[in-house]
Write a structure and sequence with these properties.
By secondary structure, the protein is an alpha+beta fold. 51% of the residues lie in helices and 22% in strands. The structure holds adenosine-5'-diphosphate (ADP). Adenosine-5'-diphosphate binds next to helix 8 and helix 10.
């Protein structure tokens, strides 16, 4: 009887084990189905991806962290002239012009730190030795553990776009130049008439001609901004640095600005006895632009203060107004080309949104940066620092 019970227990045990085994087999079968599905989906994804890469109009290239090419699509072949066999295993430096080979080192160091490089405009060399304008977007390729194992690069041929931009800049420069010549002549005639009417002391002629002169000068200054912008974009801006004293320049500019307005008082604080090394004409342009803006964007009038503050080897020059002020969101975008604030209080103020962009570019050539502090309804302070010249 005991033996039968033991046997029954054993049988029940085997039955349980058998059931577990069947469950395990079923589980394995399910996993296999899942794995097959995943493999199929991976295959589909990779086929889609390779179809996209093949049909893309942009060159898509992958390379190792040492810059050795690992894939090269058909657009890369069309754009650069080399085929896949010629490029795989070759260094990417093959298509980088000699004077730009340092770029690759810089790009690689950024990507190693995990930073993506977006729309980087540069030049690359084709098999026929032609220099192409390209826009590059480069991203790190990571393995499943997150380590960077290579790089993928998308290159767009922007030669046509660059040519079009060049034509546009030339056109703007030509139109600006043609407009400036007659306007300068008009200003000169107005100035002659002003001299004459000063002798006649006819107050009506005097006020009218003074206003006409101010308006003509305003137009010349706007046209001058367009000319400078065109020169800057073409890389033709010339910075002529020399040692010069700050005070006479700022004093003249403050007087010119005061001449433009009766509503504002322009003050000058602590700018004497400072020598700097820079382009006096261009820096004068920056300060005049800040003064013009301080006047334009303080429609109620008020004080405008040019302040010079020594900070070790630097001089901080600031222009403060009591105008409409600028919101924190707009402050971030002020220095972009053509950016203008959309504010009801200043919607009648004319301008093209290039003055601050030009100012920041000129300051970049002086290793300086323009800063803004502002509060809406209270006023703004624009400032920048320059290295003091010790002789
Ligand atoms: P523009 O004056 O021709 O529009 P700017 O590039 O000189 O171009 O200035 C860009 C914008 O920044 C202006 O349209 C204006 O909205 C804002 N801005 C500049 N200076 C001041 C200022 N001092 N106070 C308030 N807003 C200003």
């Amino acid at each position: 009887m005991e033996d039968i019970n033991k046997m029954k227990e054993k049988l029940a045990h085997y039955e349980r084990e058998n059931y577990k085994l069947i469950q395990r087999v079923l589980e394995l079968e399910r996993s296999e189905i899942e794995l097959r599905k995943a493999a199929r989906s991976m295959e589909e994804k990779s086929a889609t991806l390779s179809a996209i890469i093949k049909s893309s109009d942009d060159a898509i290239v992958s390379k190792t962290l040492d810059g050795i090419i690992t894939s090269w699509n058909s657009s890369a072949e069309r754009i650069f002239g080399y085929n896949e066999q010629e490029m795989i295993g070759q260094p990417i430096l093959k298509i980088i012009p000699e004077d730009r080979q340092d770029e690759e080192v810089e790009i690689l160091s950024k990507l190693r730190r995990g930073i993506r490089v977006d729309h980087f405009e540069t030049k690359r060399l084709t098999k026929n030795g032609i220099l192409l304008d390209v826009s590059l977007t480069i991203s790190p390729v990571r393995n499943t553990a997150g380590a960077i194992i290579g790089l993928s690069k998308i290159a767009r041929d922007i030669s046509e776009k660059k040519l079009e931009e060049h034509r546009k800049h030339n056109f703007v420069a030509m139109v600006s130049h043609e407009l400036k010549t007659p306007l300068t002549a008009i200003t000169a005639y107005i100035q002659i008439l002003l001299q004459v009417s000063k002798k006649d002391s006819n107050p009506f002629y005097l006020t009218t001609l003074t206003r006409a002169e101010a308006q003509a000068k305003k137009m010349i200054s706007m046209i001058q901004d367009f000319l400078s912008l065109a020169r800057l974009e073409e890389g033709k801006i010339q910075i002529n640095k020399e040692k010069f004293e700050l005070h006479p320049l700022i004093k003249d500019l403050a007087e010119d600005a005061q001449f433009l307005t009766r509503k504002h008082t322009i003050n000058l604080v602590s700018c004497d006895n400072i020598w700097i090394y820079g382009d006096p004409e261009k820096l004068g342009h920056v300060i005049m632009n800040l003064l013009n803006n301080a006047i334009k964007y303080s429609p109620e009038g008020g004080a405008i203060t040019i302040h010079c503050e020594k900070q070790n080897d630097y001089i901080k020059i600031s222009v403060k107004d009591e105008g409409v002020g600028i919101s924190p969101i707009d402050q971030k975008r002020l220095f972009e080309r053509f950016y203008r604030v959309n504010n009801d209080k200043i919607k009648t103020v004319s301008g093209f949104g290039i003055g601050l962009y030009l100012a920041s570019e000129i300051l970049r050539f002086h290793d300086s940066k323009i800063q803004v502090e502002s509060q809406e309804g209270i006023g703004s302070i624009f400032s920048f620092s320059l290295n003091i010249h010790h002789s």
